[in-house]
Amino acid sequence: MSGSRFNFSLRRLLSIRENAERDAAVDLAVAHAAEENARQVQESLDEERAHARNALLPPPGQESRVSELQQVAFLIEQLDTHGETARESVAEAERTVEEKRVRLGETLRDRRVLDRLQEREREEWNIAEKREDRSEMDEIARDRFIDRKDANPKAGE
Question: Could you state, in order of their start, the residue ranges of all structural domains in the chain?
């Protein structure tokens, strides 16, 4: 072979796309972690509400003062508000994860396009290298043939 190395014409762009893909993967992992954290907070608040409700409400048949029931209702309402906020946080985290997943898919697609283009360029380069090698080998063979013919003029006639 001629000794030249394959050099992809869009190497720098491919490198940029690979970095974008890596960044998108990291962003998706961070979004997944945030979603999981939001879910844990929501589950914790739901458990806290259930526990508080059971602990604060009087057993059936027991008389309670209205003021006590109002306080229990207020506390449970506060816990419900926190729970709703947590559910909204989970929904937002789910949307963020989906956005990051779509972005990762786009970066994967962009990189694959460049990978295929690089492979085509490499194949074309290999074909050109082989063609050049064959030409060099043909030239060497032709020169040897001519050298032999010149060295032994009667052998060629």
Answer: 12-116
